[in-house]
Design a protein that fits this description.
The complex is a heterodimer of chains A (495) and B (154). With 495 residues, chain A is mostly helical. Chain A has 22 helices and no strands. Classes of the chains: A mainly alpha (495), B mainly alpha (154). The interface between A and B is large, with 58 and 67 residues. Chain B: This is Putative tricarboxylic transport membrane protein.
Chain lengths: 495, 154
């Protein structure tokens, strides 16, 4: 029996399949609860995997993380509360579809394209794992700086408002990321002597505050009247899926490729992939004006992307034992515990285990379709609950979610502060999304920038000396300058 | 309630100056030109530019009143927003002694009544929702939610 057959046989056992399904259901529940991330779902699984054989343990983690990333889209669509940070990029778009009465269409797209994105990422993982990992390992601080800047420049175009206010929001986010001890000099920065602030501004309470609490405040201000729109039921999801698949295949493919590529880079995971893909979708769309009004195009591209990134993150994890994101960081620990030490030798000594992992990936993504459909049906039932009852309950969820991040009231304080900030920002037409991305990418950007500046002794040209850095740098500058050039051309033409 | 872009620009400019001032006081890494101050200074520079462009745009654009009453003009809206924020603060202060279930039920009951839900429905929904959230988070997900009177009986 060859390694491939052996690998498949290791998975096709009743106990393994049952474990995978149970972990998938667990992932859906945790992912759907705002404030609990896919990473947290995996972390909660670790103690349980101690009692499992290696293959079901790894299978449980893969299935759980894939489901959690998808399930994050459910509360994001229904309540404007991203269940996981990976859904934050297109939360507003999904919620706008809910307001139009198309919640099930948005969620249906999320299920299908999440599964397809995951399968694409898996295919790349199977075919190109060793080669691609090698490219990503060649990245230095210069490449990381450009990559982070590219992600941020995308953020400015995510918001539907004026780019200037998007930039303002982004700078605010970057400022919040500078708070704390985690900086190049390792000194307390902007902490005002507060011990809690030393650990910095936690991203999850900030996100819950900006997105969810601000929405609760707005609903409370208006007296939480019920939805005026009736939600259209998606009687035959397969029919809608066929049309979406045919109409939006380029977006889907682009999302898959971008997601996988970003997932492979160490440190950049599904969250960043979704942001970049949403911005790309808007940039290349024939109808960019529809973005932000409840248009499925951007959702398809970014939901494909974040699930593709999840599989992509396994490339450096399996080949070199370097985590592609926080989820694989935990999984690598479990792999070591189970004697499946990741690294090139795993491919030589235990190839059947690698093939078993690939099989689990395929199974998990296929299982996402029926499980996801069941979850979204249950989720849309939530919309029938009167909003006067829903909004206060969401507030309690927010409080508990913010508390659960570090089991401390500090999370709730952060959530409250960011809730008020988000409310005021939206009142003034300042988009929230770039601020969230600024908080996420700020540390990476600063570290890469200061390290590069020290290495280059202040010579800015060094940022373009390495071929890969030069390529990324030119791409970033193009993304930043294209809108300005377009405006200049229009001004010249009208003059 | 919203202020116009000119007021916003002044606030942003002031914020940029405060940030730059605070960043200057950060000590450098010994023997290096670039330390903890570089990045905040760059952000302050960006904010300053944003403020200038925003302010110039507001000066050139149509005259808008300094403060516009938007949602705050609706009867009771400001009161409901203030009550929601107070509910979060109440939770933070009361949960460690009262425990999660009692505090959450009080917060929910208050907000339900504020939104005009009838008392029996509000009381039942507040109790059930608090118990469900407690069970899901404290038992299934092992989040150490604060224990108080009610949790002791369970």
């Amino acid at each position: 029996m060859g390694a491939v057959e052996a690998g498949i046989a290791m998975v096709m056992r009743f106990d393994v399949i049952l474990t995978i399904l149970a972990a998938a259901a667990f992932g859906i529940v945790v992912g759907a609860i705002p404030g609990l991330t896919a990473t947290m779902a995996i972390a909660l699984l670790v103690p349980i995997t101690f009692f499992m054989e290696p293959i079901p343990a790894v299978g449980a983690m893969i299935a759980c993380s894939a489901m959690a990333i998808f399930a994050g889209d459910i509360p994001s669509t229904l309540m404007r509360m991203p269940g996981t940070p990976a859904s934050a990029a297109y939360t507003d778009e999904c919620y706008a579809m809910t307001r139009k009465g198309e919640a099930e269409v948005a969620l249906g797209a999320n299920v299908l394209f999440s599964a397809l994105g995951g399968l694409f990422g898996t295919a790349v993982l199977i075919v190109a794992a060793p080669l691609l990992a090698e490219v990503a390992l060649g990245f230095s601080s210069f490449e990381y700086f450009w990559l982070a800047l590219l992600g941020l420049s995308c953020a400015i175009f995510i918001g539907t408002g004026a780019p200037l206010k998007g930039l303002l929001s982004l700078l605010l986010g970057l400022f919040f990321a500078t708070i704390g001890l985690d900086n190049p000099a390792g000194i307390p920065r902007f902490t005002f002597g507060n011990a809690e602030l030393l650990s910095g501004v936690d991203f999850i309470p900030a996100m819950i505050g900006l997105f969810a609490v601000s929405e609760v405040l707005r609903a409370m201000a208006s007296g939480a009247p019920d939805w005026e729109m009736r939600q259209t039921a998606m009687r035959n999801p397969l029919k809608g899926w066929g049309r979406m698949f045919v109409t939006y295949w380029p977006q889907q493919l682009r999302g898959n490729i971008t997601g996988t590529a970003i997932g492979i880079l160490p440190g950049a995971g599904a969250d960043i992939a979704a942001w970049v893909s949403y911005a790309m979708s808007r940039k290349f769309s024939k109808t960019p004006e529809k973005f932000g009004t409840g248009h499925v195009e951007g959702i398809i591209e970014s939901t494909s992307s974040n699930n593709a990134a999840l599989a992509g993150a396994w490339v450096p994890a399996l080949v070199f034992g370097i985590p592609g994101d926080s989820i694989t960081a935990i999984v690598i620990g479990v792999l070591y515990l189970k004697g499946l030490n990741p690294g090139p030798t795993l491919f030589l000594n235990n190839p059947q285990a690698i093939y078993a992992v690939f099989t689990i990936f395929i199974l998990a993504n296929l299982a996402m379709i029926p499980l996801g459909l069941a979850a979204l049906k249950a989720g849309t039932a939530l919309l029938r609950v009167p909003r006067k009852l829903m909004m206060p309950i969401i507030l309690v969820f927010c409080i508990v979610g913010a508390y659960a991040v570090n089991n401390s009231v500090y999370g709730v304080v952060l959530m409250l502060g960011f809730g008020v900030l988000g409310f005021l920002m939206e009142e003034h037409g300042v988009p929230i999304a770039p601020c969230v991305l600024g908080i996420v990418l700020g540390k990476l950007l600063e570290e890469a920038f200061v390290t590069s500046m020290i290495k280059a002794d202040g010579q800015l040209l060094a940022f373009f000396e390495r071929p890969m850095a030069a390529g990324l740098g030119v791409l970033t500058l193009l993304v930043l300058c294209l809108p300005l050039l377009g405006r200049l051309r229009r001004a010249l033409r009208s003059a | 309630m919203r202020v116009n872009d000119l007021v916003l620009a002044v606030l942003v400019l002031a914020g940029a100056c405060v940030l730059a001032g605070a960043a200057w006081t950060l000590p450098p890494i010994p023997g290096q030109h670039y330390g903890a101050a570089v990045f905040p200074l760059a952000i302050a520079g960006g904010l300053f530019l944003c403020g200038v462009v925003l302010g110039l745009g507001a000066l050139r654009g149509a005259r808008v009143p300094f403060v516009t009453r938007t949602w705050a003009a609706e009867p009771g809206a400001a009161w409901r927003v203030a009550a929601t924020l107070s509910a979060i603060i109440f939770y933070m202060l009361a949960a460690p002694s009262l425990g999660f279930i009692a505090t959450s039920a009080l917060v929910l009951l208050g907000l339900f009544l504020l939104l005009g839900v009838r008392l029996p429905v509000a009381a039942a929904a507040a109790g059930i929702a608090s118990l469900c959230v407690f069970y899901a988070f404290a038992h299934l997900l092992r989040v150490p939610l604060p224990h108080g009177l009610v949790e002791g009986w369970l």
